Amino acid sequence: MSLADINLQEGAKAESPYVPKMARVVEAAEMTDTERFFRLEMEDEPLRYEPGQFVSVTVFGIGEAPISISSSPTQGDVFDLTVRSVGAVTNALKTCKKGDRLGIRGPFGNHFDYAAMRGKDVLFVAGGLGLAPMRSLIRYVLDHRKDYRNVTILVGAREPRLLLFRDELAAWAKGGQAKTLVTVDRPDDSWKGNVGVITRLFKQIKVDAANTFAVIVGPPVMFKFTVLEVLAERVPENRIICSLERHMKCGIGKCGHCQIRGTYVCRDGPVFTYDQVKRLREGI
Amino acid sequence: MLPKALEKKDLAGWVAALAEARRVAGPVRKEISPADGSERFGWEFLADPEDLRLDYDLTVLGPKKFLWPPMQSLVHYDLDPADPKPEAVLEHEPMVLFGVHPCDVTAIGTLDAAFGQQVADPHYLARRADTAIIGLDCEKPCHESSFCLDMESLYPAKGYDLMLTDIGHAYYVEVATALGEALASAAHLRPAGPEDLKARQAATERKRAAFHLKLPLEVKYLPEALDASYDSLVWQAIARRCFSCGSCNTVCPTCYCFDVVDEIAADLKGGARVRRYDSCQLDPFAEVAGGESFRKERWSRLRHRMFRKGKYILERTGQSGCVGCGRCDRACVASISIRDTFTQISGSRES
């Protein structure tokens, strides 16, 4: 694009992409010691989003942080966030309760290509907080269950008390809509389920490589070992899907914080295929 | 639009006339070097038209700061949690940047592309749209570290309203836009005559003779050369000296990465979301929540900057991320040179 293509006068009058819109907390709950669940509703226009996108959440007086959307647009005008308390903004959200007002910008980024997955098996593999963004797609697929073939959900957590969405995992396992397996690295006395790293769950499932999309979201080390497992099952690289975590400050491809080589995760991602991620090199 | 000419003795009068409608910024003398007695120049709003020094050389910071301030409020809100009422802050006023060298004209074009494309950023664009640019052509390299001819920033085809060329007793004035025409009408600019044209031609020839290519490859091959060097140990070798101080980013006329922070007003009634220059060379730049960093190694951050300058920004905006001004070379306390780096990796290109 050349200089002539940029209309300075028109751009000068554009709406600022940095002003948050107001949202109200309709539900807030403790999930674990460090994670909280929020259900929000925009006060004016409802949020129009796709599974896999993220928003920037403002706590006025503190700052802004990028958070993945945990819900599927199929649930209506409210949307869910899963927030781990790690920084100033997310710690401020600890005291945020029903009725409070927050600022929201977005949604930003691309999304999981659920259309391409129609008619195929979908294998979800979520480690730790990775279940938060993945839940948007799981719920979307389960809400359109007849469009998809076999759905398998593998979830790993370090300890039982760190498991997110326990009730939903139990309901998915029970409902028969998806084969759902959960494992923890370090069990407590009450844990009766699987023990060990998430890759061990692959021994309990069958993968139809020619017809499977594998969606993997979790910490970098879990991602690497899981990709290895899925590749060993012969799933092609362009049907292994992941979502990358970066600290997006602007969400619109300007500030540079989420840049991996020439790629801006906030606009070109956060959803990538393994085929793309392996080329990024600094990706994982 | 027909070219004009301005006698040098009328320069201060023209600047004074421009200053009636716009704030005028230009190069001024900042200090005399205690080391060698040479003059040092910087970009400032002019307090007095006589302060303008069109014989300036490479400034530490370019005119970028007037369009892209080191700190800029984006949003203001009330600290009342029941009703924060966030609103955009768009601060701009009519300005003239007077005497912008070709490299900085080109660099502003890169910023225009970065902030104008895809999602428009009115906080930059409103300032930019309100700013007239009067360029000043270079007759000789202004610093030993510059390589503007290589980076194709020495002959900008656009990005200015007027372009001045020193023709001895006068300036030859190329009029590029309607705004430039209007600015010219504020002064006693006469139509350029045959003598002026001849003098300008001579200046252009002196310019051509004074600048030489310094890189061993054509700049169009630079992205390819960088790609071929991505896995080389050369980055670790160069970064041995790097302190990760970020001086290179601070002085760069095309760097535009930023951090965003919230600030509370002293009366505790209002808050502002502010952006400020950030540096990809600093350790926390690529950190994510929880502390993981995706460019932990100093050399990987140095490589990232060199790739941004030589490849990424070009591919993203269509405008070069490096204009070859030489500011980062001069600012580097460890004598790391972007020109030497481009030279060294240019051998990586498969021929």
Which helices and strands, and how do they pair?
The complex is a heterodimer of chains A (284) and B (351).
Chain A: H1 8-12, E1 21-30, E2 35-42, E3 54-59, E4 63-68, E5 79-84, H2 88-92, E6 101-108, E7 121-127, H3 131-143, E8 151-157, H4 166-175, E9 179-184, E10 194-195, E11 212-217, H5 220-232, E12 240-243, E13 259-260, E14 263-264, H6 265-268, E15 271-273, H7 274-280
Parallel strand pairs in A: 7-8, 7-11, 8-9, 9-10, 11-12
Antiparallel strand pairs in A: 1-2, 1-6, 2-5, 3-4, 3-6, 12-15, 13-14
Chain B: E1 4-7, H1 11-19, E2 23-32, E3 39-45, H2 64-67, E4 71-78, E5 87-88, E6 95-100, H3 102-116, H4 122-129, E7 131-136, E8 162-166, E9 170-175, H5 178-184, E10 190-191, H6 194-210, H7 222-228, H8 234-239, H9 247-251, E11 258-264, E12 270-277, H10 298-317, H11 327-331, H12 338-345
Parallel strand pairs in B: 2-6, 6-7, 7-8
Antiparallel strand pairs in B: 1-9, 1-10, 2-3, 4-5, 4-12, 8-9, 11-12
Task: Report on the architecture of this protein.
- The complex is a heterodimer of chains A (284) and B (351).
- Chain A has seven helices and 15 strands.
- Chain A is an alpha/beta fold.
- Chain A has a seven-stranded mixed sheet, sandwiched between helices.
- Chain B is built from twelve helices and twelve strands.
- Chain B has one domain.
- Chain B is globular.
